[in-house]
């Protein structure tokens, strides 16, 4: 048994919003995988520690949590033909490229995204993988291996598309799958990989892509299977007005009515984006406890709209943050997403939206979105998932409040990150990962994908 004291941080944000939240200015004691003490400045650990990490040059936060991504899209970042497009033309331009995805390319893309996330202070990540061209049946298995290799936690979703162009959907027929195949593979993945309880590393969720790329049957059967298997449900919803028009034309109803009609308006569900809701829909989502992954950078890049985050939260909707896929962000820099969320929401609600509230979206809020209560808050009994940030770069010089500086001065790199008591980032690097070799091979795979 080892006890580590992360001692006297320069600044600390615990994300603990309980009324009797302890003062953490003296740091934390980590015993094996778990936080066992939160200390006020000047307090000593209750028993001797084997190791002390002097955090006097670091800001301490929970590990950030990313609730929406498409790792495979790191292969199609900043691709010229869709650099200036909105969602629907952006998708129809990219689908034929994504249809050429191979197992090795996905492995590289997943590793790149996970490494970027980890280096930007993220310790738990969700991915939504819905592209299964022939030969890529084991996409999620490949992702599980990459997650285990890098040591983060992940909620990997078995995505799906069943509504191809021949039937009035957006994706080409070559990437849609029969519903039976999807359900069978989903059940296999849950049985093989899904962990439950505190400290789970890999979780599986079911994730039909969006109303315009899956049939009503696929939505309904996925909800049924998720209930049977007791796993979470994820999809894109209310991202653009084009999507709302599609739902009205095809289903004769708005997005939330559609969601309810297929059995998804529950606290098992989290939605990517969730922008275009009216007042009544916001209260229905809140009553149901349906969660939203807010993706500010993607929403700005594709000009999709501004999510009503404060109203969603005030109605009881759990809200977290997502960088979204790398073809619409195009970076997986999790800490930067906190800043983007703060500024986009200030544009909607005014400059009084607190810095701490944005940090809470990326930590405590995101944990709730993924259905977890063991991470996202630095508190006794929680997993020791945390990030440590140095402020000795040019960009922070002259800053005063260390926690505010992280967000306002645009931090992009954690100096250290710990997952379940294990250091996964040390001195701004991932031990045992050859980043130069990874970038070389990933870039070559990206060029190969574009040239076909
Ligand atoms: Zn997305």
TrEMBL record:
<feature type="domain" description="Amidohydrolase-related">
    <location>
        <begin position="59"/>
        <end position="411"/>
    </location>
</feature>
<dbReference type="InterPro" id="IPR006680">
    <property type="entry name" value="Amidohydro-rel"/>
</dbReference>
<dbReference type="InterPro" id="IPR050287">
    <property type="entry name" value="MTA/SAH_deaminase"/>
</dbReference>
<dbReference type="GO" id="GO:0016814">
    <property type="term" value="F:hydrolase activity, acting on carbon-nitrogen (but not peptide) bonds, in cyclic amidines"/>
</dbReference>
<keyword id="KW-0479">Metal-binding</keyword>
<dbReference type="InterPro" id="IPR011059">
    <property type="entry name" value="Metal-dep_hydrolase_composite"/>
</dbReference>
<protein>
    <submittedName>
        <fullName>8-oxoguanine deaminase</fullName>
    </submittedName>
</protein>
<keyword id="KW-0862">Zinc</keyword>
<dbReference type="InterPro" id="IPR032466">
    <property type="entry name" value="Metal_Hydrolase"/>
</dbReference>
<dbReference type="GO" id="GO:0019239">
    <property type="term" value="F:deaminase activity"/>
</dbReference>
<dbReference type="GO" id="GO:0046872">
    <property type="term" value="F:metal ion binding"/>
</dbReference>
<keyword id="KW-0378">Hydrolase</keyword>
<dbReference type="Pfam" id="PF01979">
    <property type="entry name" value="Amidohydro_1"/>
</dbReference>
